[in-house]
TrEMBL record:
Gene3D superfamilies: Electron Transport, Fmn-binding Protein, Chain A. InterPro entries: Flavin_Rdtase-like_dom, Flavoredoxin, Split_barrel_FMN-bd. Keywords: Flavoprotein. The keyword Flavoprotein applies. GO terms for molecular function: FMN binding. Residues 9-164 form the Flavin reductase like domain. The keyword Ribosomal protein does not apply. Signal peptide: none annotated. Belongs to the flavoredoxin family. It comes from the Archaea. It holds the Pfam family Flavin_Reduct. This is Flavin reductase domain protein FMN-binding protein.
């Protein structure tokens, strides 16, 4: 029997996206965002939802661009810090010692030390209430060579991304491989 928890923001997995923007003074900023995911295949798009008062939302609205950097498990403290303070109050790159890199494709920075980066042009916003959903067309995905398979594709075991657990308010490592997608279910066909 299932027990009702009420209307809550609980879904698994919940990503840890580090959203990069520039502010009006050309200063690089990043924030942690968990409300988001892939939203279209063609053109490739990702959507994030940010609270209306967020400094990053203001920056995206002004620049029409953002990046998403995917941190490895070794950077969980830095990623958490990025969600604790506002870029209008502190320089998060200086505090953490991480390196901002200016995207060549969009007017936004990404985090050099994080192995996977999406460079996005903001193409749509939707007011949802407390949050605004921003859809970004993914113009490029950048991958550290050290996090690639032998064929050059992203290797999740080398990237070591982690997820946010909204019920426990904690971070979780990603677990074992369960099998090949679009193959395991063929036994029911």
């Amino acid at each position: 029997m299932k027990k009702s928890l009420g209307a809550k923001t609980i879904v698994y997995p919940t990503p840890v996206f580090i959203v990069g923007t520039y502010d009006e003074n050309e200063e690089p900023d990043v924030m942690a965002a968990a409300w988001g995911g892939i939203s279209c295949s063609n053109p490739p798009c990702v959507s994030i939802s940010l609270q209306k008062h967020r400094y990053t939302l203001k920056n995206i609205n002004e620049r029409k661009a953002f990046t998403i950097s995917i941190p490895s498990e070794g950077y969980v403290s830095e990623a958490d810090y990025f969600g604790i303070v506002s870029g209008k109050d502190e320089n998060k790159f200086e505090k953490t010692g991480l390196t901002p890199v200016k995207s060549e494709l969009v007017d936004a920075p990404y985090v050099e030390e994080f192995p996977l980066v999406l460079e996005c042009k903001a193409i749509n916003t939707l007011d949802l209430g407390m949050h605004v959903q921003i859809t970004g067309e993914i113009l490029d995905v950048k991958l550290d060579e050290s996090a690639a398979t032998d064929t050059g594709k992203p290797d999740i075991e080398k990237i070591k991304p982690f997820t946010y657990d909204p019920a426990a308010i904690s971070y979780r490592a990603i677990g074992k491989n369960l099998g090949k997608a679009f193959n395991l279910g063929m036994k029911f066909k």
